[in-house]
Amino acid sequence: MENVNWIALIVAALSTLVIGFLWYGPLFGKAWMKETGITEAQAQKGMPLRFGISVVLAFIAVFFIYANSVITGGLPPDDVHGIEVTKFHTFGHGVVHGIMAALFMAMPVLVTNALFEQKSFKYIDKRRILDCHFCHYGRNCQCMDIKNN
């Protein structure tokens, strides 16, 4: 860990604020507020806390991506774990990697969206995640039209 470029990771995490400002500000801010039912006054409440939490969550995601790409040198999994070491070629090991990706990449995004949309943590329940998963297969597309749950 002595070769970690912390400045690059911090800049990457902070870049989410710049992108979010552009996306939810001048580009699509009015449409986003209309669709989420949030007024300008509501959107301004608690903004420093939201920004702080979103930067921490972005840093978690950035560090996870860094750890899985740069630390391993971008090597394929067989080269990282060793193709001859079969204890890593199991369903359970894949589940561990899937859970880690969900916790450190997907959840920061979902929590950040819920923070800025001022939703409760019920907004990120297993039903919603499953509904959105099925959207990708052309079934039960409730994830796009849920407004005030």
Describe this structure in words.
There is one protein chain. This protein is mainly alpha-helical and 149 residues long. 66% of the residues lie in helices and 0% in strands. It has helices at 6-27, 29-36, 40-44, 47-69, 77-81, 91-116, 126-135. Helix 4 (47-69) runs antiparallel to helix 6. The longest helix has 26 residues, at 91-116. The chain is elongated and about 60 Å long.
What labels describe this entry?
single chain; 149 residues; mainly alpha; 7 helices; elongated; disordered C terminus
Evaluate the radius of gyration: 19 Å
Unreliable parts: 136-140, 144-149
Percentage of residues in DSSP E strands: under 5%
Largest sheet: none
Subunit organisation of the chains: single chain
- Count the beta strands: 0
Structural class: mainly alpha
What is the first-to-last residue Cα distance? Answer: 42 Å
Average pLDDT number: 78
